[in-house]
Each structure stands twice: as structure tokens, then as C-alpha cells.
């Protein structure tokens, strides 16, 4: 029977009816829809994990400065900090998410998960699961399959592009994918995994996409760190069976509705929010070429 | 969006940053346009629309589209330097910006590419996460993703042409995934854009190319994205 990732409820029912582990329908989907072989799917996830870990390591060791100057080795500063507001594990986790995202901002190699603007969240979370809990690559790739399934449903029912749904669609989806991965790594139930997704969406709902100067730097990098933190808090809440009250599919619906009604200036256009602050505008003026001609809409004239 | 996403669109693509929609997706649109043209152009006029219009430079979309036009992959480290590489390869390029084009998707780019006196116009949409849709080719509606095998035919608008072509594909055991058919006008030029799950035999492509009522055939095997 074909399962197409239209909703979380149907994913759960499909697993229960066919007695499948939560990641198995994700593999079946890719084999049926894309003609892939199962071994290639596992290999592909392993390669993605390798690139994610490389990005974390690069960001924590190599020089990370961007053309605009807004990225200036921030992850390393946090990583080397001697003060820990919570504990060293938390500081390290935040640093890893920042590190991978800084590599992205500096035109380095990353895994878009689901998008490049959110490419620090999954690496930060997965590398932390391995560092703190010694979880094997095999188990982590299982977790990544669960994350992929979560992404497929959110993409279908709400959207994953900042230009379509705001930051909630990018870092929100990544955080939801990461929360599900954490719960699966801790052998959580399907209900707990999906609850962590719903709780994460509740926490990320409404976040606008307002990149300063249109660059994927500020506030994208710090939001990757906060989204990784929210993934952990959601996973912690879900794994203790605290009820999300609103079912996960309805949370996704809400995200779609909020995204649709968001004004264009909050959708990656760099016209609102932090991009439209005095400092944001002056940075834009400094780092971007200003002689971009805004032509009249030629296609309207033709019609 | 006809085709369903891959799990490697959710965990992937592996790409050069900073933006999946403004960098990786744009590289893919450029690669698709390269295939429609049949190689690297000598000249490229690139128009960025809507969300792209103001931010294309900040996201490196200008470097990304040129990299794609030169057929670099999304994880190619040369993307960062593609403006210089294009100059070395004598690829003349020009960028334009258009805002408020409400008929287009928020992230749309139009390419007018010229190679050996042949010019093609390709309009691509970057859907997020590196996913793309080529919405138009030479003014005809297209709607393909380059994830499958794509056949683009320009032909006379005449009775039975769709049935004929689908029969040729069926004989090659090609399952049609999506199909867009449009025409300039009645009994005028028509265009079929067909996405297939499996590749078409070279001999079948040649056969279609030699049909009297077929003007042009472009075949794009799935790009290893």
C-alpha cells in the first residue's frame, strides 16, 4: 500500500496498521516515488550526516567571516566561552548550530535541511545527540529519515520557503524535524515524536523572515541557535507526555494560515522587521550595490 | 507542483550556501535552462522578479544562475567565483530586476539565452529547499522539475499529435508523469512538455525529430542534482 505523507495522522495509522517502525514508510516512499534503492537511501543520509558534521567542525575551527562583515567568527566565541548560563552541554549545542549556519552564510558547503537558511539546526542537534549521548551513526540516520518525513508533510500542508511562509516555514520546519529526531533517538513513541513536532510549531509560529540587507546572516544565524534550543525543549516536553492539546496536523494548518496572511515585507524581501530598522537599512546601503533598477512591470504592459 | 518531493529535498540538497531558494534552486534553474538550450550560451539576459529582485545579489543568486548556466552542480565550490569564471569563458551576461510582477511566483527568474543564433526563453520558479519548477519555455507553459526525464516538442497544432507521441512513448515503456500542452493559436505552433519516469531510447527521439509536423525536439534526461 502506498503512503504519501499527506498528514501525521495517516502516517501514524499507516505504521500502526502495518506494524512498521516510524521511519520505514519514509524509506518505502522514496523507493516507490523516486525509484531509489534502500541502500542508496541509507548511504545518502550518511553522506548528509558527514557534510553536516564537517560544517559544524569547520565553523568551530576555521575562519568564518562574511563579505558584509556581519558574520565574524561568532560560533567560535560562544564555543570558547567560559561562562555557561545553563551548562557546557547547552553552550556546545548552541555553538554547533551557530557554526554550521555560519559556514552556510560564508558560501561554504552545507546540507539544506529543509532549507539553507535553516541549515544549522539539524547539524547542531544531531552532533549534540552524538556528543552528549554517544548515539551511533546508524541510529542518527534513522532519526534523519523521521525528520525527512516530518518535512514532507509540512512542505505539503504549509510550505518551507521563507518567501512563501516567513521564517516559521524555514527554521520552524527545521526545528520540528530536529525535535522529532531527538525524540526518536530517545526511543520515543510515534505519539511523542509527533507531539514534539506540534509543540515546536506552536513555539515557532508567526516568526517573520526579515533578513538584514537580504543576506542570510542576521537574524538567521542566531535563530538557528534558538530553533535548536526550542527543538530540545519541545522534545523534552513531548517525551514526558505533556499534551500539546492542538493535534500536530492542526498546528501545521495554523502555520500555513499564518504564512499566507503574512505581509510580503516579512517574507524574505528585506523590507520589514529587522531589515527595516535604521541600522538594518544603513547596513543594506553599505553592503549592497544600490543601482539596481526597479523596472515597471513589463508583463502587465504586454497583457 | 505536480511531482512529489524527495526525502533528499528535505535532508538536502548538499549545497553551497547561503540560500536554498536563492542559491541552490537558482543553480538548478540555470542548469535546466542550459539543457533546454543544449549547452552553454554565448549571451545571457537574466531577470530577477519579486522577492529575487531586491535580494538576488545578497544571496549570491547572480553567481548561482551563472554557475547553473555553465552547468555547475549545487555543491560545486566554484559557484562563489562564477562571475569571474563566466568572464573567462566569454559568457556575456546582463542582470535585470523587476518588482511587483504579481503574475509570477515570489521567487522567479527569467533567462534569455543565445547560442549559435538560437535563442531560448526559460522562466523558472524556486520553490524553496532547492526545489524548482520550470514554468515556461519560449512562452509555452511547461511545468517540469528536471528531476524526471523531460521531452519538449514544438510542433504543428494538428489532430492526433498527442495520441501519436504518447504511443511512441508507450512503445518505449515510458510512463508519463506529467504533461503540459499549449499552443499559440488554433492550427498554429503547439508545444508538448512531457515528464517521464524512465529514459527514452535515442532512436525514438530521432524518430520523433524526423516527423514532418515536429519542428523541434529537446530531450533532457534527469539531471543528477
UniProtKB/TrEMBL annotation, chain A:
One of its GO terms (molecular function) is L-serine ammonia-lyase activity. Its cofactor is [4Fe-4S] cluster. Pfam families: SDH_alpha. Residues 18-275 form the Serine dehydratase-like alpha subunit domain. InterPro entries: Fe-S_L-Ser, Ser_deHydtase-like_asu, Ser_deHydtase_asu. Its EC number is 4.3.1.17. It catalyses: L-serine = pyruvate + NH4(+). Keywords: 4Fe-4S, Gluconeogenesis, Iron, Iron-sulfur, Lyase, Metal-binding. Belongs to the iron-sulfur dependent L-serine dehydratase family. PANTHER family: L-SERINE DEHYDRATASE, L-SERINE DEHYDRATASE 1. This is L-serine dehydratase. It comes from Mangrovivirga halotolerans.
Automatic annotation (TrEMBL), chain B:
It catalyses: L-serine = pyruvate + NH4(+). Residues 6-117 form the Serine dehydratase beta chain domain. The keyword Nucleotide-binding does not apply. Its EC number is 4.3.1.17. Pfam families: SDH_beta. Its cofactor is [4Fe-4S] cluster. CDD domains: ACT_LSD (cd04903). It is an enzyme of class 4 (lyase). Keywords: 4Fe-4S, Gluconeogenesis, Iron, Iron-sulfur, Lyase, Metal-binding. One of its GO terms (molecular function) is L-serine ammonia-lyase activity. InterPro entries: ACT-like_dom_sf, ASB_dom_sf, Fe-S_L-Ser, Fe-S_L-Ser_bsu, Ser_deHydtase_bsu. It comes from the Bacteria. The keyword Iron applies. NCBIfam families: sda_beta. PANTHER family: L-SERINE DEHYDRATASE (PTHR30182), L-SERINE DEHYDRATASE, BETA CHAIN-RELATED (PTHR30182:SF12). Belongs to the iron-sulfur dependent L-serine dehydratase family. This is L-serine dehydratase. It comes from Mangrovivirga halotolerans.
